[in-house]
Design goal:
This protein is an alpha/beta fold and 432 residues long. 41% of the residues lie in helices and 13% in strands. Helix 10 packs parallel to helix 14.
């Protein structure tokens, strides 16, 4: 749509100058969506300072002519503003975790693409899980209308805390709330760390999920960046059957977006490598198309491996509980896109985790701190084979290390310790 980011910024600036605010937001949303998928941007860019300045101008335009309240009474309300929410994905799960711990949580979804307005029942599962929260979807006809609706809600609820869980291209959460005075505002940076709107806004605190990203953001933004652990409720430690030879199984999890269908890191190659190393099965948790599964099984047959050893388990309510019941011994991290929350679940359950290591790390990649045993990283199929052999020779020790890593860094107590530094009321922690 735009030849460069400069062209996008110039066009949005022109639209703001003539008060075409909804068009400015729509162009920003589409422009960022397209920009942050360019190969020259991936892993090299994190922020949009020029567009953030324009977001502030839009927020200022929203409150022009409105007199500030002289009797501002901040409540214990915590306003969580997200673009959308899904049953899978770490970012959505963190919203649920915070809702369960915060006092008076209110979740507002901008529904930037109007998906929920078209299919409102898609949120039924979330409303059931978060029965202690007020859940609101902005149904307005234009992007500017959504910003105005969000401002009205913010003025009504008078939150002491505003947490942003926006999709990287969604400016609506900021435009609709930046004008609200007195609340503590915090951006919860998206797990994938694609270039994101909002990170450079003045007065907005910053939270990341891994140490490496927090260090990067703190350095680039010249502000503190807290690390909020990817907490997963403790569902118990697996008791593994004794390891005898290589007649054991492996398990992985993730939807189709975590894997490649072709190329050096094609899922079929990973499955083949694992099944050549182990005598059991390769279990896959998560959604894969029927055609893709058939391709993988056909490939296994062609290389002399039994196709039925690739076992599809589909979507499950809890990865942790599912893998605790499986007769498997090693968890293979998704590749080429890793899964942070799933890694925490696997290690909490006691699985040694063979994780995919990105060798060409840019400023937007790098999260080895998620993993208990750094030596279990692999970046090609030969390394994966060697890693599996190492796990099998040291399974008991690596299992204990994995569980200890969860208890120290990702337990509910640690999650609440950090959350109490993010959600505050009049200087005091307000989490339950």
């Amino acid at each position: 749509m735009f030849a460069s980011l400069h062209d996008l910024e110039s066009h949005v600036s022109e639209l703001i100058a003539i008060a075409r605010y909804s068009d400015a937001i729509a162009n920003m949303l589409v422009g960022v969506h397209n920009h942050n998928r360019l190969s020259i941007v991936n892993r090299k860019v994190l922020y949009y300072p020029g567009l953030d300045r324009q977001i502030q101008k839009l927020a200022d335009a929203l409150v022009v002519g409105v007199s500030p309240s002289m009797n501002l009474q901040l409540s214990y309300n915590t306003l969580i503003v997200a673009s959308e929410i899904y049953q899978v994905g770490g970012h959505s799960r963190v919203i649920i975790d915070i809702v369960k711990e915060a006092r008076s949580p209110i979740v507002v979804l901008t529904d930037m693409l109007w998906r929920f307005r078209k299919e409102p029942h898609h949120l039924d599962w979330f409303i059931r899980i978060c029965d202690n929260a007020t859940v609101i979807v902005l149904p307005q006809l234009t992007a500017w209308d959504k910003c105005q609706g969000l401002k009205v809600l913010t003025d009504q609820f008078q939150p002491s805390n505003i947490l942003y869980f926006n999709h990287p291209e969604d400016p609506i959460p900021f435009v609709g709330t930046l004008g609200h005075k007195g609340s503590r505002k915090t951006l919860v940076h998206h797990n994938d760390h694609t270039p994101s709107l909002g990170s450079t806004l003045i007065g907005v605190h910053h939270v990341d999920f891994v140490e490496e990203m927090a260090e990067t953001c703190a350095r680039h933004l010249d502000r503190d960046a807290l690390v909020l652990p990817l907490y997963v409720e403790d569902s118990g430690v697996k008791t593994f059957t004794p390891v005898h030879g290589n007649l054991i199984s492996a398990v992985t999890s993730g939807t189709h977006i975590k894997y490649a269908r072709e190329g050096k890191m094609a899922l079929q190659g990973i499955v083949q490598t694992v099944l050549n190393s182990l005598g059991g099965s390769f279990f896959h948790i998560g959604e894969l198309s029927t055609e893709w599964v058939s391709e993988i099984r056909a490939h296994l047959l062609n290389v002399g491996l039994e196709p039925e050893r690739f076992v599809i388990l589909g979507q499950v309510p809890s990865v942790w509980k599912a893998i605790e019941r499986l007769d498997a011994h090693i968890y293979i991290g998704s590749a080429p896109v890793g899964g942070g929350r799933a890694a925490i679940e696997a290690q909490g359950c006691g699985y040694p985790l063979a994780f995919f290591r990105v060798d060409d790390q840019g400023p937007a990649i790098g999260s080895d701190s998620l993993y208990a045993s750094k030596q279990l990283g692999w970046s090609n199929l030969s390394e994966l084979t060697a890693t599996i052999m190492h796990v099998m020779s040291n399974h008991s020790e690596l299992s204990s290390i994995a569980r200890a890593h969860y208890e120290k860094n990702y337990s509910r107590a640690e999650f609440n310790r950090i959350l109490s530094r993010i959600i505050k009321f009049n200087g005091e922690a307000s989490v339950g």
